[in-house]
Each structure stands twice: as structure tokens, then as C-alpha cells.
Amino acid sequence: MPDPTPDPQRDVRPTLEAVAALAGVSRATASRVVNGGAGVRQPLVDQVRKAVDELGYIPNHAARTLVTRRNGAVAVIIDEPEFRIFSDPFFSRQIRGISRELNAHDAQLVLLLVEGSGDFDRVTRYLAGGHVDGVLAFSLHTDDELPAIIRRFRVPTVYGGRPEHQSSGGDTPQVPYVDCDNRGGAREAVRHLVSLGRRRIAHIAGPRDQTSALDRIDGYHDVLPDAASELVVEGDFTAEGGARAMAGLLEVRPDVDAVFVSNDLMASGALRVLRERGVRVPEDVAVVGFDDMTSVAEAAEPPLTTVRQDVEGMGRLMVRLLMERLNSDTGTWPESVVTPTELVRRASA
User: Fold this and answer.
1) 159-183 b/e (C-beta count within 10 Å ≥ 16 → b)
2) CA 49 – CA 37 distance, rounded (Å)
3) Omega of the bond leading into 225 within 30 degrees of 0 (cis)
4) How far is CA 16 from CA 39, 58, 106, in A?
5) Quick check: 7 and 36 in contact, CB under 8 A?
6) Is the pLDDT of residue 331 over 70?
7) How much of the chain exceeds pLDDT 70, in percent?
8) pLDDT digit string (tens) for 220-236?
9) CA distance 149 to 146
10) Is the peptide bond before 334 cis (omega within 30 degrees of 0)?
11) What is the spatial distance between Cα 341 and Cα 64, in angstroms, rounded to a whole number?
12) pTM, whole model, 2 decimals?
């Protein structure tokens, strides 16, 4: 039988002093190497790292923070109800891209959800405590308190989506953002419907307090500047919202022959209503969505023609811009990035 008596030598956690002794350097030098400090010659760095590996030393997080002035953590703040975040594949894709890129930078993701005005107090306290090195914030609304909180505590930030609150000019640096070409993608979707010979093209828009929805409305009007006002109805980026919008649209414009929908979830709801009403897609009404959430678009009946944006890639880009900002010796702000979109043709249009 194995000896149950603990081995004191085996159970003692290796210390920084032991690393320094094995590497043949001072404790201060060993500390700078393991905690990411600068100013150590490469041969000594190699010696310390070898000693760390041999001893299985795990750096103390508090000590690393004192040396680098970094927490190794980034807050991801999403201003949406919890049910949307965990039911909409858009958010899971973006968080996956963010998580993978943060892992590549050896940084921890801290997810903060904002469902109501009371949550802003909690977020404020957390950011004021200096627990994170930066913030990635997306799904902002026009009445968001978050941008003001971020400016107040001067937390390095990158936004997902173009923030409407950001003004041009002045002395305040423009906070970088990552977005897709919402307006251009919408134009391409509507032009495709026009090319199919459709003449009564409606638009189910997203909430007008979000810039992505506003940009897609603008793209629709770029192609159809004289479209009747009743052809544009507002949804809420959910399947249920798309179904309600489609039902309402059919009440006022039963002659509609095409619909551009502002995201795939709403398009799936619109398709369900059309199917229930006996309206054939695409023969009677052609439908185009936005996002190319394949789990939604490919499972739709019929499969959904939609505008693709690289949601996971945009999450990665957000992290890269933030790291560029954090690692800048001059404190300069990186430029915002707008990624291209692409029409993906399937059976619905």
C-alpha cells in the first residue's frame, strides 16, 4: 500500500527564491523575468525560464500585477438581456472570437452583463476598482450610460459596432471600434432583390436605438429612396420580433413581394409567418437576411439568402486593437476597422 504520510518536500510550493537560486540570479532579476518586467539580458531570461520549468514554479498574480501594472484580464460588457445573449448565435460567435484572441494574449475574459439601469452601478464599481486592463463593449444603445462611465475612469476600450455617441472633433480621443459595412451590405441585399424583378420590397428593421439597424435602414433607402413608409417596420432582432413585424406588414401591405430583414433571427420568424399564411418563398415573397448565422440560415425553410459578416473575426479584431492600445508606448489610439460583407445566396431569394 502507498505510504499515506505526506512528503513535506513534495507538497511545498516552489518559491521565487528557489527559482533565483537554481538560475544563479538575484531574486529581483528572477521576479522581473517571471512577472514580465523588462531590462534583463536574454541569457539570464533563458536561465530563469529553465529554472521555472524545472521547479514547476507558478508566478504569483499579485506580484505580477505590481511589476507589470497589468491584471491580465479584460472586461467584455454587453448591454442586452441575458436571454438574448445566450439565445442569439451572434453573441456566442463574437464572444468566441474574443475569447480565442484573449487566450492567445494570455489574458482572462471577464463577462459583465447589463440588463437594466441598476447594473450600471455594479459595472461602475467594478471598473473603478481597477480589476481589468481594458474593456470590450458591444451592442450599445443610444441611451447607454456605459460610454460616459468608460470616459470617467479612462479605461482603454474598443467598441463592437460604431458608437453613435462619439462626436467628431474636440480634444477627447475617438474610441476605436470594429464594425462591418452594414450600409453597404444592406444595399447589396436590396439590389439583389431588385435584380430578381421584385418591385414591392419591404424592410424589417432592427431597433432604431442601435447604429447597425440605422445603417441597414439607410442602405435600404440608398437603393429605394422612394419606398413607401409603411414598407419599413421595426423589429427587435429576435425571431419573435421578426414574426410580429412580418404579420403586421402583411396586414398593411399584403401585396409585398420581397423583404429585406435586418438579421437572420428576425428573418427566421418572418419565414415562419409566411409559411403559416400559405405564402410561398421565394415564388410569392423573396426573403434576404443579415449576419449569416449558419445555424439559423441553413436550418431555415427554405434556407436563407443573407448578408455575411465575419462576427468571430470581428471579435478577434477588437482584442487586437485593445492590445495595440495597451502596448503602445506613446498612448496612441489605433484606427477603427470596418470589415466587408458578402451576399450568400441560398433558396429564399
Assistant:
1) bbbbbebeeeeeeeeebbbbbbbbb
2) 13
3) no
4) 18, 9, 21
5) no
6) no
7) 88
8) 999 999 999 999 999 99
9) 5
10) no
11) 41
12) 0.78
